Amino acid sequence: MGTSVQVTPLCGVFNENPLSYLVSIDGFNFLIDCGWNDLFDPTLLQPLSKVAATIDAVLLSYSDTLHLGALPYAMKQFGLSAPVYATEPVYRLGLLTMYDQYLSRKQVSEFDLFTLDDIDSAFQKVTSLTYSQNHHLSGKGEGIVIAPHVAGHLLGGTVWKITKDGEDVIYAVDLNHRKERHLNGTVLSSFVRPAVLITDAYNALNNQPSRRGDKEKEFGETLKKTLGAGGNVLLPVDTAGRVLELILILEQYWSDKSLNYPIFFLTYVASSMIDYVKSFLEWMSDSIAKSFEQNRENPFLLKHVTFFINKSELDNAPDGPKVVITSMASLEVGFSHDIFVEWASDPRNLVLFTERGQFATLARILQADPPPKAVKVTMSKRVPLVGEELIAYEEEQNRLKKEEALKAALIKEEEESKALHGADINASDPMVIDVSKTHASHDGRILFPGANALRVAGTRGGGYRDILMDGFSPSSTSVAPMFPFYDNTSEWDDFGEVINPDNYVIKDQDMDETGMLVGGNFDGKFDEGSASLILDTKPSKVVQNELTVQVKCSLIYMDFEGRSDGRSIKTILSHVAPLKLVLVHGSAEATEHLKQHCLKHVCPHVYAPHIEETIDVTSDLCAYKVQLSEKLMSNVHFKKLGDYEVAWVDAEVGKTDSGMLSLLPCSAAAPMHKSVLVGDLKMADFKQFLGSKGIQVEFAGGALRCGEYVTIRKVGDASQKGGASGPQQILIEGPLCEDYYKIRDYLYSQFFLL
Amino acid sequence: MASTGPQQSLKRQDSSTTREEDQLIITPLGAGNEVGRSCVYMSYKGKTVMFDCGIHLAYSGMAALPYFDEIDPSTIDVLLITHFHLDHAASLPYFLEKTTFRGRVFMTYPTKAIYKLLLTDYVKVSKVSVEDMLYNEQDINRSMDKIEVIDFHQTVEVNGIRFWCYTAGHVLGAAMFMVDIAGVRVLYTGDYSREEDRHLRAAETPQFSPDICIIESTYGVQLHQPRNVREKRFTDVIHSTISEGGRVLIPVFALGRAQELLLILDEYWSNHPELHNIPIYYASPLAKRCLTVYETYIHSMNDWIRTEHAAKSNPFIFKHISPIKSIENFKDVGPSVVMASPGGLQSGFSRQLFDMWCSDRKNACVIPGFLVEGTLAKTIINEPKEVTLMNGLSAPLNMQVHYISFSAHADSAQTSAFLEELLPCNIILVHGEANEMGRLKQKLISQFADRNIKIFNPKNCQSVEMYFNSQKMAKTIGRLGEKTPGVGETVGGLLVKKGFTYQIMAPDDLHIFSQLSSTNITQGVTIPYSGAFSVLNHRLKQIYESVESSMDEESGTPTLQVHNRVTVKRDSEKHISLHWISDPVSDMVSDSIVALVLNISREIPKVVVESESIKTEEENEKKVEKVVCALLVSLFGNVTSKENGKLVISVDGNVAELDKQTGDVESENEGLKERVSTAFQRIQSAVKPIPPSTS
Questions:
Q1: CB contacts, 8 Å: B152 with chain A
Q2: Catalytic residue (one of B83, B85, B170, B409)
Q3: Fold of A212-385+540-557
Q4: Are A672 and B694 in contact (CB under 8 A)?
Q5: Is the pLDDT of residue A428 over 60?
Q6: pTM
Q7: Does the active-site annotation cover B309?
Q8: Any chain B CB within 8 A of the CB of A400?
Q9: What's the first-to-final CA gap in chain B, in angstroms?
Q10: Which CATH architecture has domain A5-207+559-616?
Q11: Which of A152, A689, B2, B688 is 20 to 30 A off residue A302, Cα-Cα?
């Protein structure tokens, strides 16, 4: 009768690839997380593409690319159309993260996997929930309740609890149990005995001994040293996640030490990100909430950090040592890539990584031990067209415009004449008629001003799509993976470039949203500067050149990932003690390690499925519901034990009028039952208790010596709380004497006998 | 506590079948048939919740408090504050610091942030003697540490009470609380508005229909004008007054609706350049400090303000409105518009301006809020010829007085529509003047005439009692739940209750489904015994039905198992040891073995002859009968024997007859019958010999 639960990983098991899992509960398919990596490798999404159409709801847990990056692409390409649930910060910051990714990519390539509009329309499907909000699904998911809970790690980070018929399925990855400056620790340990727990093994082998304070001090000192020696510091970060914690650490350190080296925070969305964050105080740590309530101090009103959304602003900043915080953390694209290339050759500079780079990215390569002496990078830049190219482009534009005007006129004419004659019209140019027919569905709207260039760019981009999707894979010879560069291979005929009318139909819809976007009416606002970059209708092209960068600057990795370390994860897991445990996301080694550990210490059912392997974690729990009759309950005497009240019942089964099973008092004498001692004995507490009763007690050889002769000891392994272990075993031994019975009575008093 | 008419009949009709714990009591300690000092007490199944903790603005000192002495504050589990207005939150520091209340307090984030500012200001402004002060600033600061925050829709559970809140409109951070105790849901609306305005969202419709809805009735059967009409009247009055060279006074409550009026005025000024030389003053230093709060919690506001915020600058940074600190800084030259608190013109800046301006015909006073009984604002609305100034003198009231309600309370239409959607089984009206409330009650009664909905309007301290016969459902899980039993079969297991959920499980499953664990205690006692082991074996076999001898595999010493419970082991020449797992029966068996071992050298057991054994059986039976009688007497008192071997038990005039042989009980009184039969069963099982082993 248990609720059926199946888990199918779509990406991110036995490796550190992005996360994406299919969890099906009584036939209702949840896609939990929809991640992509900074390389945007479409092959990773292969498994998702097969099931996307069958998904009923999407749950997002964090706002970074690894957890939600593929959402726009999946919505656009795979027919994913389910409602999406996320917390408000994950929604807003996720949107900004995707903008930043897109804008960074667009700067250096003809990126066309998705557009800003795709991002917007994907995120429009998001329903935002607050922590501990029980959201009841309706329709197909009737009876299922989903609730986000605090996960730590990133702002708005979520542990998802899915409940059906009293059984909990919990999805908790990338947790942080520690309280940080801006975040509270996860509440995962407040859940006990869920039917299924899905968690990651990412940090299973990673134990961090140092305390937060020491680490932050070391961090500050490292920066100070570099800056003092005249070097610059580059902090490659994510767009809107861990960067918040780093900013707060820097703010504090700068205030404490009264430093005045400038700190620049540079992403395409920096200022709107901080604007949003300022209004997310209720999602942050208790201390932040408290300081705001008491003094209305918002920690994100920054004093030392300056935001830039444009690299030229940074270039205009005065020379001298500075700290630059910028995206992406992977150094693959974005400002961090360019700045790294500029700064790498100066030995005074420092590149400080605060998180492990994604697999096969430049950051990961640089984090190798020993770091490479030189790396090959591709510098790409979008430059406006000049000279002949520009003239050629403009001619092309004019020609297209004229063509369209002609088409529009023809359509109008055609419609008019249709209305008049209801017959075909013989036009002078057969080609135009052909095209106009395909365009009939969207009449003259094509002529929206300003939208032309964008649409044309889209059309031109269409030529690359196949190449990028199929041909993209890190080449085995190159140090870092890179985008292949191809010439425009689109076909031309006598009338110009061959165009695919389908592109017009889709783009036309997108255009309306673009129009809105420019007007500033859309939800996710982003900086005008960056908007102008992308909506810039000035003709431009991408130039690439490859160069080898000598890595002379210092490279340091300090862990500010904000994830619980391996040891804590194990402690939390054995506390939560799920009935069944599913391990995902983590290197094969880490996954295997954690699996072995959990089998021994957590529960006997530990699964580590492979990609597209469906495992059934339906609980073998049997249950039926009964009504407790008043008569029975009036004879039940509960004993209170912490949050619980316990009693022994013997009852006879009856039926109520509505056919429900009900429990009635026994008509005959109840059979004898084996008595149960309920309670958990803590030896240390018991020692104190006996001490208070005037009995001499001491620990000796793992046992408690009470008085002169009596010993009490616990037998068996009590550390495993999961399904396998039975009740606690306690052994009391001694010679026949008065003390023995006295101590036994004290021991009994620690339990409830039922 | 008194009980109003309809409930009494309800009580009578149900009293035979319901028990005390099914009774749900709701008592308004304030805001019952009045506006002000909102405070509603509710208790059900031993759980107690209090909603709001306000003061009455027309009174001062202790008289302004709700009737806290009617309840025991220490019994309250949870206190929920809906919004920051003084009549909903201002007695909280008193309640937290000066009473025995030890429960938990919750409010939303914006409410908590503004609460502190508002109350600190209230303490400073209210000019009462030190004895009359309910609390001081330190009390407010201390109370801040005790207040916990809850986000909209977040579910919190305290002692089995589950609650969450919905957006209520009204002011920033205003919430409606839904409380769920053992499946009975109570919705407390606080002040709410179903109309979206410039910055706030409209009140949400809860997903679930509550069993009881405690709803405000401030506006009774009145209807609001449409928002645009209201705004036009407001701006027209102001425009015409200042164009004739008059001054406009708008007495407002410092926070909440004032922000809405400022948004309206700022927009109107922007659209009318000719007014740019007329100053608008907003006399509230508080508002400026609250601005950061409004800025930060922009996500609690409606989409209009959010897009406005996203697209342009913060709409709460006004272009045409200048803040002003006090009357001293105010230069009264020519026409102006002044918004000043308090809204009721009791004292303070708004009153000072009123005194200055009331006798000039050109001036106008626009009252935008709700009129609280007993305040000057309420008095002047009836346009008396004269008013009493603060200095005690009388002055003619010549200024025009306009009452344009902007207070975001639901009107009659909104209330009807809201209740129509919710369809709660019981409606309790609070927060309304007696007359208005009475009229609303009549209207609702006719509206819901054909449906079984009860409507109450209790006075302060008047309890509404209701009965909810909640079915207790349990889930049988784990090993016990493997097979669903048929009717008549018996089920035995642990009943585990957490909050209001019940589970039945086998003892071995306890640690799987709960955080509790069961324990086995193994005992080992060493006894000096130097006799032959076979003698012991022989003696034990004479007493116990089941004694099995075997060899300990490790040490090769002989062992005996008595009743499959206690193992007797020969440790050495001089010692034997007993081992068993704790359990009352095993403890008893082991005790008797110990006694036997200790006495073994002293006594030789009597040789029992067959005939004697039969005799002893008879004797035994007699003994049992005696014991049974004695125990019944100790339980029930009056027990007599009848000739047919039956026992007659009479308690309080009820008589039960017990058949000693079969255990059948006959009685008129069901309760007694049950008790006697249970008692007899237990006695029977106590006097019978222990079965050799229990499975």
A1: 130
A2: B409
A3: Rossmann fold (3.40.50)
A4: yes
A5: no
A6: 0.79
A7: no
A8: no
A9: 55
A10: 4-Layer Sandwich (3.60)
A11: A152
